[in-house]
Structure formats: C-alpha cells, structure tokens
Amino acid sequence: MVVRQDVEGTPLAGRSVVVVGGGFGGLSAACYLARAGADVEVLEKNEQMGGRASRLEADGFRFDMGPSWYLMPDVFERFFSHFGKEPSDYYELERLDPHYRIFYKDGDRVDVTDDRGEMVELFESIEPGAGEALEDYLDTSETHYEVAMEKFVYEDRPRLRDWVDLDVMRAAPIGLQLVGTMDGYVADYFDDPKLQQIMQYTLVFLGGSPKNTPALYNMMAHVDFNMGVFYPDGGIGAVVDGLVSLGEELGVEFTTDAEVTEVTKRREGFHVETTDGAVYRPEFVVSDADYAHTEQELLPEHERQYDADYWASRTYAPSAFLLYLGVEGDVDPLEHHTLVLPTDWDSHFDDIFEDPAWPDDPAYYACVPSRTDDAVAPEGHSNLFLLVPVAPGLEDTPELRAEYREFVLADLAEHTGVDLRDRIVFEKSFCVDDFAARYNATQGTALGLAHTLRQTALLRPPHRSKAVSGLYFTGGFTTPGIGVPMCIIGGEHTAGALVDDVR
Description:
This protein has 503 residues and is α/β, with parallel strands linked by helices. It has 16 helices and 19 strands.
C-alpha cells in the first residue's frame, strides 16, 4: 500500500526522479525524495537491491557479500525517525560481545569487549600508563564524534563559503585535527604497536591507511569502543530489505536487472536507457552508481565534470580478496568478527597504496555470522568469509587467486589454529575483477574514494553535477564518504540538494 501524506504540499509533488543504483546511498535518497512527493524509480543493475551489500545464497548458506559490520546505530535510528519509524520496525539487533577478536601473528590474542573498564585494564597490562591514555583517547574521540557529526557530517557543506561561518569557527579545534594523520595522532597516546593497531584498524572501513587518513577519524574509536558493535538479524541484507520496504511504503518503484547504459540531458528532460532497451524520461537523475563510471561511461563527454586524468589521479580505497566458505563443523576459536594481524602491518599498507602487490604478510578479517545467527548455515555447519584488503587495479587471474587461496588458508591455520582446508563444502571467491564487473567499480575498488587528506569533506566530488542541471550523485565517492552509515547520510544530503534546487 502506498503511504504518501500531504503530497500536494510537498516540494517535489508531480516531479519524476530516476535513481541509478540500489546501494544504501540510492535507497536513502529514494526514500527522502519520495517523502518530498516525487515519483521515484530505482534502477539496479544486478538481481537484487543493496549494491555492494549483496547477498549470496547457495547450498543452505547465506552470505553478506559486502558490509558485515553494523556500527553507528544512532545513524540508523535517525534515518528511520525521519519517516516516523524505528529500525525495529524492520529488523532486530543483537549487541555483540566481544566486539571482535584479534589474533596477532606472534601468538598473542586479544578480545575487544563491551566492558570499558576491562579494556582499560587490558591496555594497562600491555603498556604501563596505557589504561589512562585509553580513557583520555576515548573521551576525546567522543567529543570529536559529537562535534564532527553535528557540524560536518549531518550538515552538508559542499562549498568553501559553507565552511566560513560561526559554527565552523567554534568547531575549529576539531577541524585542526585534519592537518595530522592517524599514525602520528595515535602514537601520541600509545607506544606499543599492538595497541596502536587496535586504535587504527577501523581505518579499513574508511579505505585508508594510518599514514594517509586524517587524524580527525580518531572519532571512530568512540564508534568502536563506546557505541558498540551489533548484528541485525538476517545480516546487513536485512537492513537493505528494511530500506526497500520503507521505500515501497513511500511509493518508490524498484526495478532489478536494469543496467543503465546511457544518461543524457535532452530538451524535454533526461534520457536514461538500460541494456534491455528500456527508456526512462525523468525530470531528475540521481546516480548511486560508481561516480567515475557514471561520468566516463554513462554521460556524453560534454556533460562530464571531470576528465579521465582526474579519475586516474584519485586515491582509491582498497579492493579485496574474498573467500565465501561453507564449512563442516564449528570454527572455534574464531569469533563473529575476527582480525588476524601481523605485528608490523606497514608492508601490507605499502602493498595497497605504494607498490601494488599481493600481500605476503597480510592483515585480514574473518566474519563468522553463524556464531550469532543459526539461519545462515545448515545445521552442523559454519558460515564464514575471509577478506584480505588488496590494491585496487591489482592483477587478478584464476591462477593468482588459487595460489593466494592456499596461502591465506594456511596462514589462518597457522595463526588461529583453525584449519578449514579439508572441511569446505561450499566455496566462492570474489576479487578485483568481480568488483569491476558486478558493481562497475573503478579499478575494482571495494569501497570508493579513500578518505585521504586531499579527498575529505568538500574535496570529494560534489552531490550536484557542475555540468548538468538536474543531475545528482550519492554514494561512497561523495560526502560524507565511505561506509553504510555515511552513505545513508549522503543519500539525505543528495535529496536535500535536489529539493533545495527545486525550491
């Protein structure tokens, strides 16, 4: 049933919008635009909504193919509240404890738990004085989070003049954190390399390294330690279903298997064409597809904001080597979220950002949702995927994948004691070429543009096209950036820009 109240009084009543791409940014924008009265249709290239948050189902196993961490619950609560809803109207959450487990390759093991006092004691046991330093770090992180979210994330500031106002000046001490990088910032608090890694690992969610990510992102420690890590019943795919259900209630139309091949502005409006020859003629277009793909492949040259040299000069977030595995038996002692880290991970980041190569001493992630959710694997089996961040654009062949598979499974067995090799009953790999083919991802990036100092805030590509009136962008290339919560907020910003322009 379509629920659309006060349509006549909404700014977009009677206006039509096509959203290209059904990732979180596109789904969010679609909901906000429909609430504003627009007739919205979402065209998704693949067989399901969600973009990189796709699901893989086979042989009784169900995998989240992309995002698997539910962080920043306040963002989801805020989003649904704008529509008079709550997350629990669409899915249930379970708080995870421990948040995650770390296996260091020198034999140490650490659990990051929900008990702050316990974490203070842990840090103090590793480095004298580090317990008090952790308290100070987390208090500062909380302050930075609150100010950054209020002044720089929830409030879109797309132009330089938007940064020259009293609110920004008052928040200047927070903004000055941009001038440093995370490695230097964390080193001011902790000397022990393992503690530094704990405080920096969330940079993987931002697509950066400690050496190239602004220190402002220390606020992610507040997200990690203070706000908690959750699991939505059914996985991140259940959150996708929630946004789609909300969109349907608002009147949004969703079409899958509709790959867009052309977007161009004509006198009577936009011309949007798909591979099957279907043509849509909306008044506005919002692209949640890969920004560079949209500009270079979908738009004619005279409607592009940037040339090929611009996109070639960007720093892209890592791609990933992924193994989706269905396994007989349990996989103890792996937790729902597990990290396997070398004591020195600089070489891995160099293999991603400096001299692209398959990492020979990787830091990697294992996700075992069957530890929490019985429905994702048949009885007596475990569901897990392994993720190794790799350089975007890395050479990706079947032979390289097969060799690296053996290496990673052996590394997991050596450093966690979990040997999967004779128990695998289902297996699928996914890597650089798959990201490029399935998601039209530039250089096969798994995330979008990295959050480097030169690619943060208004230095990211804009929501409004500077070349074509009525064309807008959302997703991990724009502000506020990478990650499910940021893309949901980005969809709000994009919809707000369109509404403001119409007004």
